[in-house]
Amino acid sequence: MQLKMNDSEPLPITMPFDKYKEGVRDFISFSDKGLPGYTDLKDVFDFITSDDKQAMVQYQSGDYANYLPTKKFKIAVNADDVLKNGVITPDQKSRLTDTIKWTYTENMVMKDRLAMLDILTHNNWKRPICFTTTVGPSNFIGLQPYLYKEGFTYRLIPFKPDTSLRDQLEKSNTMVMYNNVMNKFKFGNFKNARFLDHESTTMFYPVMMSTFLTLAQSLMQEGHPDLALKVMHKYDEVMPNLDIDMDITGNKYLLTQVIYQLHDTVLGNKYANYINNYVVDQLDYNYYLLQKNSNLLNTRSIRFGLEILNGLAQLNKDNHQAALANKFEAEAKGYETKFAPVLAQAGGQ
Prior knowledge:
Layout: E1 27-30, E2 39-40, H1 41-48, E3 56-58, E4 64-68, E5 72-76, H2 79-84, E6 99-103, E7 108-110, H3 111-122, E8 130-132, E9 147-149, E10 153-156, H4 174-184, H5 198-221, H6 225-238, H7 246-261, H8 265-291, H9 299-318, H10 322-338, H11 340-347
Parallel strand pairs: 1-4, 2-5
Antiparallel strand pairs: 1-7, 3-4, 5-6, 8-10, 9-10
Helix pairs in contact: 4-5, 5-6, 5-7, 7-8, 7-9, 8-9, 8-10, 9-10
């Protein structure tokens, strides 16, 4: 990471090897010293990488070790540097904060986190700092209020935090994300592939679906329904219609909602029928299991399937698609009758 790799310059990691070689700073424990407010990250980083014994704790064994005295970090933001390095566009400058403040979320600093703190301290916005969307939340070390989707990554952008958001990871840098998804990403033969491995169907497919959905919703919220509709057509062009499980089908229902909201009933009907075919198949299978008194009966799948069918019926009513609405409503009522004993039993538990 500290050497050039192909066309990529070395990462801005300033620590010499002796600071993190095996046996040195393998982990740095948190010991709250009650420091007031937020502490500049550079001061924290210099402290936890110091070789001065006065900056360390001494154990009963006589050994010395660095420790983390606070979890409240801050980084001053130079707006001119952020703009000059292309992190934002000129029209976004008013959204910048003068200081990033956040609370580190772990009770120790392992070597990977130490490298992250080094980069955050010394990068000065010269290179993008991104986190892939497929990692767990602990990897964001508390920076979620400043992370914005730009596709399959979250980018660190020093905008003023929006504390009203329940899910901080649903924010997007929308127009950059639009350009990435619509013009830069290459989807290959994903839509028509004869075989997709387990990771492609259970990890990448949901992530890609979520990316399109977030982008379309963000464009609508920001007053660009025309671009949102282009995103939905791009989705239809490059993405396969995979039937993985009810959760994926639930996300597909959200996509269909967006399509109808954009007044494309032809595309909306297409996806409503996709969803209906899968849900009916699953409900028929569960009814077969019910008749066989099988313990493989999936009550959650039954309930979720009925919710989706009723949702489709209402969605099509709202969008004046009477034939589909009547079909879905009749199916939902039929399955509610078939599964009445199961639903009553589950409801009483």
